[in-house]
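Purpose: get a first structural picture of the assembly so the mutagenesis plan has something to point at.
Setup: two entries, given in the order below. No constraints added.
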Amino acid sequence: MANQAVLDQETFETFHNWRVNRAEYAKQWKKRTGGKIIGYFCTYVPEELLYAAGILPVRILGSHEVQDVTEPHIFAMFCPFCRDCLAQGLKGRFDYLDGITIAQSCLHIRQSFTSWQKHIPVDYNYYLPMPNHVQSPRAAPFLTKELEVFKASLEKWLGRKIDDAAIDDAIEVYNRNRDLLWKVYELRKGDAPPLTGEEAMEMVLSSQMVDKQDHNAALETLLTRLSKRESTRSTGTRLMILGSENDDIEFIRMVELCDATFVTDDHCTGSRYFWNNVKLNGNRLENIAERYIKRVPCPSKDWPQRTRVAHVLELAKTYGIQGAIVMQQKFCDPHEIDTPALIKALNGVGLKTLFLEFDVTVPIGQFKVRVEAFLEMLQEDDLF
Amino acid sequence: MSEKQEFWRWKEYRWHDESMDWKDADIISAGVDIGSVSSQAVIMADGKLYAFSNQRTGFDSPESANQAINWAMEGTGMTVKDLHYTVGTGYGRVNVPFADKALTEIACHARGGNFMYGPSVRTLLDMGGQDCKAIRCDERGKVEAFLMNDKCAAGTGRGMEVFADLLAIPIEEVGELSLSVEEEPEPVSSTCVVFAKSEASALLREGWPKNKVLAAYCSAMAHRVVTLLERIEVQKDFAITGGIAKNSGVVKRLEKELGLEALKTKYDSQIAGALGAALFGKALETKRRKN
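Result (structure tokens, whole complex):
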């Protein structure tokens, strides 16, 4: 059994604490800065613009607890993640939010947004019509204009202008964060990665919850520590995990206790969130729009060409994975369409895959059998 | 006072090869499969089947493991100390107190199936007590791909036990009786054990004979596992392990729907997991001695 315990716990304590005590952090941030906090539902929201306005953008995520409060609001055949997110609002767990926003991605999460809008009073809400056809040459100009409208809306709400210098600063802070996260991910390419998949998940998730400047400072410290971190933990089988939204720390931990390590991922709670930077070149809003149009896409936007497949294969190669766990939230239509193509492509380069469907709660025991059997498929060749 | 018959109870038994002397063997390996419904212990002497037991699993997995191995060794003069390497498998695989290693029942069924049915097996269906697995394997019995049923007990042995009890038909007779219908009825619409039982009760009230109700349930169960098998792409040869392999009512309907005959074996299909575990035990002991 791999021993998580031999990795020192304190290195990632800051990130873990931020994730677990996110409400407390947000409330203190508000007290400290006097700023407003906006909850966002999808990583296509251009956080840079909010940050430039002095707003703290925080991602709305679920809690993985069984609930029934969303029954009157969202169909049962919508994904568990969107219901879990709305449940948090209905239970008052995001009572510190001044506003909410979403950029168009899938209809399920948009339903959470509209239900929230209707049933949970917030001072400000904004729906950003982010194009789904990002491969169209008209997508970036369209989004640029939409960002102008969004900016004007924020300015009206706040009663002040968002100046260019603030946008530049925000872009710098956000690019810095993405660079630092990327540097940590680079360390996972080595034979003995100095961090586990669980720790990487804590790190990225917390970046969606706290002020990026605080996060950047913590990442700087982390990189220094990781360079000196000595691990006697066995890496075991090198795995990748990919698919829809995934913040299921418990699942990641379970897998990594079976002599395996997640060395990379393709999730909007992982690498997909930070993989691409804003390239400053003239018009700021245009540059931000370009970033969101050209980022590693969510399958709701990856058409008519499937560009993500090539990206996933590149990750698989450069991170030296031995197998991949392909997961998706139950009833997630965009990922359901992508999953067969991804599995086929991974199998095509000789990588075996395990497909798992996630719900609000994950049946750890039942999944463990599948995971262990999958790992046995990849190992134990000398027993035959 | 008369004793009420429990129709779901299948035969618990043990066996050992009296023609063999285990003391002649270089490696004694054991496999203990603690399933959700049944537990088996298999003992092999140099890779040859020497003894086994097959019993119901109790609420206490370590105790079930102890009982299974002790029963398999009964009358042989062997004790747990004589086992060179033991592999635990099944749901209770980590709760086998005397095991050296735990491996999943998926790997073990593939390995055991390979031993029981021969190296030509490429697709294996394990129909266990509370789950069902479609496994594709190579000529060595190594898993290449697998799929398990979802989060309920539909299409599994426990469901069949519930039906045996409901209809007061001994479990061993369910299959043959279900095949005695003149015309195949529509399958029950739900394979959920609870819903299917309600549906069956309604059919009985409508006057359906028992064999017809059983045919409708066996047919639904066969259809459900065929959909699982199709997802993994069935390749020849095909074989079935687990308790349901003994139910001709399910097996024949399954074969018909698949258009493929399942291989036959002289071994008890229920011991496949423990058998595979014991074979892995032998390989692990050989490896240990080399190092």
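Chain B has a mean pLDDT of 93.
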